[in-house]
Amino acid sequence: MKQTMKVLCLGGAGKICSEAVRDLVEFTSANLITKITIADVNTTLGLALVAELNDARVDFRSLDLHNEDETISVMRGYDIVMDGTTIRLNDLSTRCIANAGCHGINLNGFGEEYKYSDLFMQHDRIHIPGFGMTPGTTNLMAKDACENMEKVFSVRVSHGAYRPFAFSPSIAETTSYEYDPNLPGRVVWEGGQMIQVPPFARPLEIELPDPYGNLPQYIIPHAETVTLSDYLKDKNPDLIEVRGTWPKQNMELVRTLYNWGFLRNDRIRIQGVDVGIMDCVAAYLCQSKEGTSTELYGYALHVVAEGLEQGKRVRRTLLHTHPASDGSVPSWAGLRAYTRCVGIPMAVAVKLIAEGRFQGHGVVIPERAFTPSDLFSELEKREIYIHRKVE
After folding, report:
1. Helix crossing, 223-231 with 137-146: angle to 10°?
2. How far from the centroid of its chain's Cα atoms is residue 149's Cα?
3. Which letter does DSSP use for residue 88 in this model?
4. Residues 9 and 36: beta-carbon distance below 8 Å
5. 14 and 104 fall within a common domain
């Protein structure tokens, strides 16, 4: 049931979450979303975003998530928390949202959220972990591809994320996290079980839409592997894999860092100070031209599912496109072609929750929370298109 709601945008001044805030302002009315608060530790960026948006519903609140009691107290004045914080903060942020009795949604979905499901259930609220482009949109693309299959043979989720290595500290953290050699969550679903694989496992050439082209992609630790194996269990999937790639120079750098052991982030001593070697590399990249720029910007999703429909073998492929980053559409120029793709689906999810177009309470995987057609039709209004092919 549709109802008016107040939204707290945690980390809302960041490059990605600020795009979600802009989307809420543009695509929701005051009859639905009555207040949008940008909550961030960066007061300068937060106030600048408020001034840019010039909407009576939007204000700023300086908020440090590590002050848990204050954070929960502030959150209790809102209905939904749109969480744009980093992976390492998602345990803390989800605990705060659950204790405050709000609906919640975040971008990462790496699993820390599920232990708070009972708390969300007690408050009759939903929390959806991992709802941007990947995971999030990819989950619903896979759901759409498999919905009419009696049996699923395979689902291969792939994406090209064309962005700099370290345009923000949180992105640098994500990059290092996904190729951490000791990470247990880099898995594939095969033969009825999760199988852990090393970085750069199972290379596969994926044909992405123009201007990205055909590139090798590797298994990455993403929530879709886990959530799809659960959602599709009645269809007995044989194989679920999630791959990804970044711009060529990013992949070359990550491979070198991996080969030389930097991604272990071993402690080293520099001028009497103990630091992690990868922390040093990430700090350099965040402050360098090479780490904060790239030639081509944007996002490209590619999902292929094979299975049986009415006893016949079928392959369904879903692709995603958006306006070019070349400046021909100013609002999609440069880095915004990437950050808008990630941030907009989270804002759409907030809108769907406010409109009552969701299912379930507690911590709910994207596949069970939303209907693909609801998401796809909203994305289309924003010039983000999902294309289908059946063979």
Report:
1. 30
2. 26
3. G
4. yes
5. yes
Q: What's the pLDDT score for residue 383?
A: 97
What's the pLDDT tens digit per position in 52-89?
999 999 999 999 999 999 999 999 999 999 999 988 89
Instruction: Give the per-residue pLDDT at 277.
Output: 92
CA–CA distance, 146 with 388 (Å, rounded to integer): 12
| Structural domain for 298, as ranges | 137-338+383-390
Give the total number of structural domains in the chain: 2
Q: What is the CATH number for 217?
A: 3.30.360.10
Q: So what's the pLDDT on residue 24? A: 98
Greatest CA separation for the chain: 68
Q: How far apart are CA 13 and CA 38, in angstroms?
A: 7
Sign of CA dihedral 36, 39, 40, 42: positive
Give the SS3 label for residue 139. helix
Spell out the alpha helix ranges (H) of the chain.
Answer: 17-27, 43-53, 68-75, 90-100, 117-122, 137-146, 169-178, 223-231, 248-259, 277-286, 289-292, 336-354, 366-369, 372-381
Rounded to the nearest 5 percent, the helix, strand and coil shares of the chain are 40, 30, 35
d(CA 181, CA 177): 9
Distances (CA, A) of 365 to 127, 143, 152, 189, 230: 9, 12, 19, 17, 9
**Domain shared by 148 and 282, yes or no:** yes
What residues contact 59, with CB distance under 8 A and at least 6 apart?
35, 36, 37, 38, 50
The conformational region for residue 263 under phi > 0 = left, psi -120 to 50 = alpha, else beta, is alpha
Rounded Cα–Cα distance for residues 280 and 144 (Å): 42
Residues in the chain with pLDDT values less than 70: 1
